[in-house]
Amino acid sequence: MVQFLQQLINGLSIGSVYALMAVGYSLVYSIMNFSNFAHGGVIMLGAYFGFFSLTLLKLPFVVAFLLASVGTLAVAIIVERIAYKPLRERKAPFLYFIISAMGASILLENIVIATIGPTFRTYPEVFSKVPITLGPLAIGRLDLIIFAISAVCLTLLILFIEKTKIGKAIQAASYNVKACALMGVNTDRVILTVFGLGGFLAGVAGVFFGMKYTVYPQIGNITTKSFIAAVFGGLGSLPGAVLGSVILGTIETFVAGYLSSQFRDLIAFVILIAVLVLRPTGIMGKVTEDKA
Question: Which of 257, 274, 189 is closest to 7 using CA atoms?
Answer without folding.
Answer: 257
